[in-house]
Amino acid sequence: MKKYSLIVIVILAIAIRMVYANTRSFFNNCDELISVTTATGLVYEKIPLNTQFTTKQVLTRTFNERLTQCAKGGYGGDNGNSYFFNFVFSYWTDVFGLSNLAFRSFSIVFDCLSIILLYVIANFLGFNSISIGLSCLMLAISPIFLSYGGGFIRTYAFTAFLALLSFLVFIKIYNNPQNKVNYFWLVLILVSLFFSHFLTYYIFAVYVFFAWIKRKESLVFFKRILMAVSFAGVLCVLGLYLNKDGFSDMQKRNESLEKSAAVVGGLENNNAIQFTPKTISLSVFKYFLSFYSGSFSLVAFAKALGLSIIPMPFFFLLLLFPVFLFAIQYKEVVKCDKIFLLWLFVLAGNASALAIMFFSKHFTSLDIRYTMFSIPFFFILITQVKFNDFKQLIIPLLFLVINGVNLIGTFNRNLTGEINLEIAEKEKKFITKDIPEIESYFADKLKNIKATDVLKFNNADDFIFFTLLTKANINNPCIIDNKSTNGITILNSEKSNFISFKYYGA
């Protein structure tokens, strides 16, 4: 594939993600709010009670404070997960500010870097230009990488980039086991990868298993990979030990989810589903559906096909697709070590998600966002199907069309029309996706605030939301006073999906 084709694909990816970013708000997503508050330093510990302070004082932090906040996380906390992402992202917010687009542009950048890296990897592996082009295009329009990657203020786009980077370094080591510098880079990337998301641990296992398989061909390669991955693992365990308090909080949360799953029925909440053969089957089907097609909803996917329900035969065809693809590629898998390694990435990611589901007895881990790091390698695999003439393009083109249809569906679910500001103000209600209207509304209300006013907030949450909505441009003296009847109140409810603003004067 020519480089100008790559440029066109990257520009397409940027355009899709920029449009999508303007339809999203982190105020109605708790996960995104955790990332935003952690990165900016708007955490409860920094907000004094019953004492005057300024926004600048809260946002100013030492290097040690930054490390502590990134390890613990804000607004509920990540408990050490996404530590490295939080740390890097915090400096991004320092440079680019506190706007919705500034936050989302971090993931957009790393999504696009992943496309470029996929191009580099596929070229390095010696694949043909059609395969490379289709792989990069699939990643550019993937609904998964739009919803959880470039359109999402979380670690997933950043972590997917690190996974691809680790793969490139590993392949270079495989080609030249004598280059000791690459082992250093592999250790560094693997540790960064793990502390960007804990559930990337399966990538460690993939590299060791592959090296073990190839030990007879190169014992030096196996021994050095084992040492490098082991050393990275020791560093990761040490990091978990240093943050053992946060890790114990995660265990408590896991026990809570398991308990709620045992008493709550239905399929409305992935964290509270009864663990039965029926729910397991449906959840596994939904997981693989999203992995292959980018669709998050059985109903949405059925509608896209013009069906009222998903036929049962389709269920089995979906689960058997990897077997079908592996059978077609069997000769290439046997002959080509690199095709085999790609398969290991895809299979290990899915196996990890299923194993944790059965181990924890709830469905939280059976989520495509936790194994999407394997999807770029899946895109390379499905473009390697060997048929004569046009037939070789049927499978990748089919997946391209399916992902394109679901991409449109993703936009349709998030794009909203203009809201009536007069009615919204009267009812004190805003749909949180209408970011431009919300910012305009708040900007107009802020005209009533004088520079000498002491801004009173009923709680720390109100101050956090106010600071984010105003992009930290208001530096009046502030005070948290839950007994105050006048001041600023910002009501947020994820369940009813609204934010309202009440300013009563200083």
Determine the N-to-C terminus distance: 62 Å
Number of helices: 23
Tell me, briefly, the overall form: globular
Reading side by side through the largest sheet, how are the strands ordered?
1-2
Strand residues, percent:
under 5%
The overall pLDDT average reads 77
Low-confidence stretches: 253-272, 416-434, 490-506
Query: What is the strand tally?
Result: 4
Series of H and E elements: HHHHHHHHHHHHHHHHHHHHHHEHEEE
| Biggest beta sheet summary | 2 strands, parallel
Q: Specify Rg, calculated over alpha carbons.
A: 24 Å
- Helical fraction: 55-70%
What class would the helix/strand composition place it in? mainly alpha
Describe the structure.
The structure is a single chain. With 506 residues, the protein is mostly helical. The protein has helices at 3-21, 30-40, 55-59, 63-72, 83-96, 100-124, 129-141, 143-150, 156-175, 180-194, 201-213, 219-242, 244-263, 277-293, 298-304, 312-328, 330-335, 337-360, 375-382, 394-414, 421-427, 435-445, 460-469, and strands spanning 455-457, 478-480, 488-493, 498-503. It has a two-stranded parallel sheet with strand order 1-2. A two-stranded antiparallel sheet has the order 3-4. Strand 3 and strand 4 form a beta hairpin. It is globular.
